[in-house]
Design brief:
Length: 130
């Protein structure tokens, strides 16, 4: 949940990688425009038997998002909390570099669509050397 913990993750991975090994991550690109006044609520699914809502709060200083996935059914309410610390692609690249890794590839998706400013997700592959 902190930048220090994420840096330690990269360092730990780097300690275990062989020269041919890679570290692959699949993550979202933060979209802070979806938040109004640091929060958002939206319907994810509306059906006759079930409604799924997502309520999120943004802490821009800590780069954290706390989300409650809310499932409403005739039997009651179920809550599924999720808390993440987001990192921008450039920040992830720096974490990798601090750990002695370098970006080898970055794509938008598993079909190897080129990553661009419009991408909402990315798959990044890091390894030793360049």
């Amino acid at each position: 949940m902190t930048q220090d913990e994420q840096v330690r993750c990269f360092e730990n991975v780097a300690r275990h990688l062989t020269a041919e090994g890679v570290f692959l991550i699949e993550v979202f690109v933060p979209d802070l425009t979806r938040f109004a006044d640091r929060q958002t609520v939206r319907a994810r699914q509306v059906g006759m038997e079930e409604v799924r809502l997502e309520a999120s709060h943004l802490d821009p200083v800590k780069q954290q998002i706390m989300t409650q996935m809310v499932v409403l059914t005739g039997e009651g309410v179920r809550l599924y909390p999720v808390k993440v610390r987001f990192a921008w692609p450039a920040e992830l690249d720096l974490m990798a570099r601090l750990a002695g890794l370098h970006l080898r590839h970055r794509w938008e998706d598993w079909t190897l669509t080129p990553f661009s400013a419009r991408s909402s997700t990315h798959i990044s592959v890091y390894g030793r050397g360049e």
